[in-house]
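Batch 3, record 17
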Amino acid sequence: MSLLVVGSVAFDAIETPFGKTDKIIGGAASFIALTASYFHKKVNLVAVVGGDFPKADIRMLEQHKIDVEGLQIKENEKTFFWSGKYHDNMNSRDTLITELNVLGTFDPIIPDSYQNCDYLMLGNLAPNVQSMVLHRLKKRPKLVVMDTMNFWMNIALDDLMETLKNIDVLSINDEEARQLSGEYSLVKAARKIMTFGPKFLIIKKGEHGALLFGEDKMFFAPALPLESVFDPTGAGDTFAGGFTGYLAKTDDISFENMKKAIIHGSAMASFCVEKFGTEALINLSDAQIEERISKFSELVQF
Amino acid sequence: MSLLVVGSVAFDAIETPFGKTDKIIGGAASFIALTASYFHKKVNLVAVVGGDFPKADIRMLEQHKIDVEGLQIKENEKTFFWSGKYHDNMNSRDTLITELNVLGTFDPIIPDSYQNCDYLMLGNLAPNVQSMVLHRLKKRPKLVVMDTMNFWMNIALDDLMETLKNIDVLSINDEEARQLSGEYSLVKAARKIMTFGPKFLIIKKGEHGALLFGEDKMFFAPALPLESVFDPTGAGDTFAGGFTGYLAKTDDISFENMKKAIIHGSAMASFCVEKFGTEALINLSDAQIEERISKFSELVQF
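Prediction for the assembled complex:
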């Protein structure tokens, strides 16, 4: 059951009240693929970087058994770069720099060996690029999960609505769900968004957890209350990586199994925020992951 | 296992995007006692109203088997009155009017028949009045639960800290927990607040649910995602009423049973916000309550 991850592989420079980083590996697809690799050993990556992207970071992805045949390297161009600074409470941030670089002309080429993928995770990208990936796959995957953000709702809503028609699971945050639906109640927002195409909707609420809607059912997973959140960058993508990685591993797309996938995503996101960038996702043991997941059981079981 | 509820019985006038009310019955103790009455038939009330308080509302409390011997009626004075207007998203409100009236000189007299209570719920009141109740009880109750608010942290912090030394469970919201502890992380805030006296801490997060801390354990209950929130007034008190009513009924103050009490509190709060004021709490059937509680199981079980 191969999992194809498409999205950005980037440089991030992050400042939080706890410190700041130079350019480190970031981007939706990095977080998603790394996280999924803990559950599934057939993660294929389609992304683009510039010649400035460190070979050591690519080796790190390979060491996690991520197939990088689909990672395009534009030797004479620069990697997508994002820099942001978090405010004291970590719930809001300012974007300091966005340099699209290679991402501005990203043409998502699917290697032949990636065809026939069973699970597709479309990380946050321009919706027309996400659609292009779907059109280039000769066989419709068993499950298509997609992430997006308010930026695309503002500047490419028509493209976004078109892409939504062809996916199965949409993952967005609460404010984006409200914007996309025009409904304040998340229950009403979910019902409306599911008429746009997705059969399932995940609404991420950051430190307040995540909701899953579908098949007239609703499931809620809290975020694990933590002593300290060090850096929230990539938490949503890590969540998506845990969700899709677990589904690909178990190859079961029932609502009941999606609940478990949500818990796996939440557990992985709780690791992510404890260190800068992808740092916490590099060397996790199965035992650590199991322990974190059992904390979720304790937290909600009554 | 008698439950003593002490707090305000008041007039509220509420305006929300969905409508507005004239003066209707409100006040922490009204919500708490009404809600607790669904679980427990020995709810005793200590509160004060003026001669303007409708006899019909007192009869309504009695019809719920609430003992009103401790409800003082100051014939020549006026009932505490609060008026507020909610903003569009229901997460914030402006207080339009606060007339303390009889509450400004409230002397919480405990009828003899209320002595030997097993469970005490101190609704939001001046902390020195809450302490007075504790001092006037000849026997220390098995469990003392207390609610308070940021207002008292601002103007009567010393009194509040003194009262906290003598209670078992404190119920406050997330912003209040942060203010009282000086810690942003709710995990750190909880640890610190429990050094002030309470052995258990409930942190209410409104539409984002509630956390219970104690015995080095942590439990989380979501709020039920609703189609529409009609009026949030009294939701926190309703929660406290469900929590204490369930504990008094089951007479089990273990952490495990407190989890169930939290779920009962959350379920009752989800009814409360569906109508104005106490309206949704007047005529609930056991079947409706059971159904709502089973929705919580479905929502979090994986």
